[in-house]
Write a structure and sequence with these properties.
alpha+beta, 7 strands, 43% helix, elongated
Length: 151
């Protein structure tokens, strides 16, 4: 059972489950490509070992972020959960949301990903990096804040 499903309150309904975009695998792919080029044309060496370990570590980090992150908008809250073993959660009632910021680079606009920051009363902010379709997430969140429904 997912974290979101296990924390739903009686009568609470999930409006949208969002995902992390595949772009989080781009940095590890670049490091793997550099390692393979170095290994193919000059043998291993110390730089090759460092690149291999860096590529492996960044791949594990990207996999954990991609698979261990749960994002949901319910009719009462926005829920974000990060991590497998060390779990960080952010849950904010929709009536406590003061703003929702979306940052998209040019590449983010082209590939439809971006960073979303949910800001609550008191200034608490929860950044969610590399979310797939951030404008859809914002639209669903704001309709719940305003009390309207998407058709």
């Amino acid at each position: 059972m997912s974290y979101v499903d296990s924390t739903l309150l009686p009568g609470e309904k999930v409006v949208l489950k969002a995902q992390i975009h595949w772009i989080v695998f781009a940095p590890p792919a670049v490091i793997w490509a550099a390692f393979l080029l170095l290994y193919t044309y000059s043998g291993q060496g110390l730089i090759g070992i460092v690149l291999f370990l860096t590529a492996l570590g960044s791949t594990v980090k990207a996999l954990m972020y991609y698979y261990a992150t749960e994002l949901a908008v319910t009719d009462r809250r926005v829920i974000a959960k990060f991590g497998f073993i060390k779990r960080d959660t952010y849950e904010l009632n929709v009536n406590r949301v003061t703003s929702l910021n979306v940052d998209q680079s040019v590449l983010g606009r082209l590939l439809n990903y971006g960073d979303v920051t949910v800001v609550g009363m008191g200034g608490s902010a929860a950044p969610i990096l590399a979310i797939k379709d951030p404008l859809k997430f914002r639209r669903y969140m704001l309709t719940e804040v305003e009390g309207t429904k998407i058709e």
